[in-house]
Amino acid sequence: MANLIAFQRITSNASTVFLGINMAQAAFNAANGQGANPVTVPRYLNPVWPLIQKYDNDNLPPFGDNPNPEYIWDQTTSDGQTVAFGAASAGRSIPSGTTEAFAVTLIAFADNAMEAKIELFELINNQFVKAAPQPDGLDELVLVAGTPNIPATGLTEIEPYNWQSTRVYSTLFTVEALDADRVVSIVVSFEGTNYLVPNPPKPNPAGLQFILDIYIAFNL
């Protein structure tokens, strides 16, 4: 049986999320705090887009003081557009000769389709890079919602919008520090795809909203 200790909550916002040309670059940018940030976008046609929100009276530890996630996207929005985002945890030191376990839960929604990945980065020569190999429970799993990989041409959205679901994923993994101390960061990345709209043209917004909760797991 494991005892979970809260480490960090990461939410979508326009200051600590970073953009990239793809998920790999967005994850690298986020881990190192570099590159451009997305912008916040308004919730489309309340209540067409759902909201991922805390309970109204949740101001309690461990994450009650964290703000609700914001809807984010690139500076501009266009038909058939794909945008990559990344967000990273603070660094966590793992002493040499020890093993630490992490539990993470991701809740996300995107208009329209999205892919998501959770990866471990580690600090090497003053830069965070993707750890190799990845721990079991992360590996190269790409989470998929909707149909982001269909070529944009002809990919259209029509009511009742069958892509519209809030997605949830959880995993548990361990990180070993065999011969030297390690500093690691947990990074979540996304690619969102904005579908085309049929003629006559309609408004075609896009947005991503997410919460990633990270816990450190200790055996009782």
Overall number of domains:
1
Number of helices: 1
Tell me roughly what share of residues is in helical segments. Answer: under 10%
Sheet with most strands: 7 strands, antiparallel
Please report which band the strand proportion falls in: under 5%, 5-15%, 15-25%, 25-35%, 35-45% or over 45%.
Answer: 35-45%
User: How many extended strands?
Assistant: 13
Q: Show unreliable segments.
A: none
Provide mean pLDDT, rounded. 91
Structural class comes to mainly beta
Distance between the termini: 6 Å
> Which series of helices and strands comes N to C?
EEHEEEEEEEEEEE
Rg, Å, rounded: 18 Å
Overall shape? globular
Short overview:
The chain is mainly β and 220 residues long. It is 5% helix and 44% strand.
Please give a structural write-up.
The protein has one helix at 23-32, and strands at residues 2-11, 17-20, 39-40, 72-73, 82-88, 92-94, 98-111, 113-124, 127-130, 143-145, 167-177, 182-193, 207-219. The longest helix has 10 residues, at 23-32. Strands 2, 5, 6, 8, 9, 10 and 12 form a 7-stranded antiparallel β-sheet that branches. The protein has one domain. The chain starts with a strand and ends with a strand. The protein contains 1 helix and 13 strands; from the N terminus they run ββαβββββββββββ. It is globular. The protein has 220 residues and is mainly beta.
